[in-house]
Amino acid sequence: MFLQNTHADYRQPLDPRDAEILGMEAADAVERHLAFRENHAETPLVNLPALAAELGVASIHIKDEGHRLGLGSFKALGGAYAVIRLVLEEAARRLGRAVDVSELHSSDVREVAETMTVACATDGNHGRSVAQGAQLVGARAAIFVHAGVSDERVATIARFGAEMIRVDGTYDDSVREAARIAAEKGWTIVSDTSWPGYERIPGLVMQGYTTLVREALRAMQQPPTHVFIQAGVGGIAATVAGHMAIAFGDERPTFTVVDPARAACLFETARAGHPVTVAHGEPTVMAMLECYEPSLVAWRILSRVADAFMTVDEDEAIAVMRRLADPAGNDPAIVAGESGGVGLAGLIRAVGNPEIKQALSLDRQSRIFLVNTEGATDPGKYEEIVGLSPAAVARKNKTGASA
């Protein structure tokens, strides 16, 4: 399925609140915060010239977030950043003075953090980031996971000392339960999705993601002409599209949002022209994107700056995982989890469909930017799908052959 943006807000300026969240000064602040993270390092921007030639475009660059902050996904930038910001703000309130990120590990800030509990719902990656952020500052974390989250992903979050709470139902059920329990107990919800009356903290989470865009643009000799980004509730797609709209103005790249067909909440929202909740059906292999209700902030941004919306099927997501693990020509291998390569799946579908290709003006001059949003966050599942362990795929780049 494919549709172009026909919303009344399309190509209108960003809401001032969103422009502030995703603007240059905010992105500078995120990078300064990251400078105080012990394991912070830029993630690689991977060039795939053989794949670009095969698909008939000028270039394909993938920002590989499978290496981010030891957590294996772009979510490492969001939840932990929001937790740190909230702890510093609470410390400033209690101490009656400004508190800088350089004081993050001071006894004053630690004493405040120890009185705080942060909570969130997660498919796996966001909860890991929130839990890590809480551990960094000495706060408690309560992470709500729905029935579809694998035991391996739960264990990975729990190792950061978080209290794990299982919830029957879907991701959206776990979001509602987390909000309910947090309100009862006075915990702070650090969600990556937003709802009426709850926007600022999801905005901070999205603000954290601006770093991957800044890093990628600095590494490119020429800016991209086209961007394909996968979406769950829409946070990463809205961040990339919104920040690029601010950075490039009218010269921004053509932006396409890619949904799993089985959880296409943003596609259906774009079709309806307003936020909608899609029915929960058969689970998708794209587990980190299995969301049935969009973030209101994300939709407010994407309604203005996304050019098109499309869906991909289960077999396409799986094929891309295998294709990145066993690349064409001399392209490097990339370990992409079940949701990591969905933007590439969208690109492949687009170039293979003459109508979509023409609608997006894809041709041999097109420069494509994608994000591998996660590595093998469930290594067992990855090996089951790809037929090789994540380590064996990674070794290809060192040996030139499968290990």
UniProtKB/TrEMBL annotation:
<protein>
    <submittedName>
        <fullName>Diaminopropionate ammonia-lyase</fullName>
        <ecNumber>4.3.1.15</ecNumber>
    </submittedName>
</protein>
<dbReference type="GO" id="GO:0030170">
    <property type="term" value="F:pyridoxal phosphate binding"/>
</dbReference>
<feature type="domain" description="Tryptophan synthase beta chain-like PALP">
    <location>
        <begin position="40"/>
        <end position="358"/>
    </location>
</feature>
<dbReference type="InterPro" id="IPR036052">
    <property type="entry name" value="TrpB-like_PALP_sf"/>
</dbReference>
<dbReference type="InterPro" id="IPR001926">
    <property type="entry name" value="TrpB-like_PALP"/>
</dbReference>
<keyword id="KW-0663">Pyridoxal phosphate</keyword>
<dbReference type="Pfam" id="PF00291">
    <property type="entry name" value="PALP"/>
</dbReference>
<dbReference type="GO" id="GO:0008838">
    <property type="term" value="F:diaminopropionate ammonia-lyase activity"/>
</dbReference>
<keyword id="KW-0456">Lyase</keyword>
<dbReference type="InterPro" id="IPR010081">
    <property type="entry name" value="DiNH2opropionate_NH3_lyase"/>
</dbReference>
